[in-house]
Design a protein that fits this description.
about 140 residues; mainly alpha; two-stranded antiparallel ribbon; 2 strands
């Protein structure tokens, strides 16, 4: 059985821009989408110290934009349902769609999370990602 890993979002990116980039669906979906991955995520220090290629960062930025759109779409549906079973089904669909978007940009969920985590502690990296996100919109 694979272990779920939360897809992370960088801190410091404007909320309006990153609303959907936090793809961790939990009790309220607003914190993100859970994805299946074979290995647990790296410890924070290791992820922050890792170097990422420009292609990885561009792919990450494109994925952030797509995930933002997915999040907004599914959050609207979650707000209109009161049925717990329907909520669970909506969350599952949102998770699947977000993971597909990340993979469609050529990233693994683990790599996406590593970049997101690194942007939380590396201001230069965060600014570079913000630049790519603005170009990807």
């Amino acid at each position: 059985m694979t272990k779920p890993a939360n897809i992370r979002t960088p801190l410091g990116i404007p909320a309006a821009l990153m609303l959907g980039a936090a793809i961790v669906v939990g009790a309220a979906f607003a914190t993100g989408v859970r994805a299946q991955t074979a290995a647990p995520s790296e410890p924070p220090a290791a992820a922050a110290a890792q170097k990422f290629s420009e292609q990885d960062l561009q792919s990450y930025a494109s994925a952030v934009v797509k995930v933002q759109d997915i999040s907004v779409k599914w959050q609207d549906k979650l707000r209109t349902t009161k049925d717990p079973a329907a909520t669970t089904e909506i969350q599952k669909k949102a998770e699947d769609e977000a993971v597909t978007a990340v993979k469609g940009e050529g990233l693994t969920v683990e790599k996406y999370n590593q970049i997101a985590l690194a942007t939380e502690t590396d201001a230069e990296l965060r600014n570079k990602v913000l630049d790519y996100v603005s170009k990807a919109k």
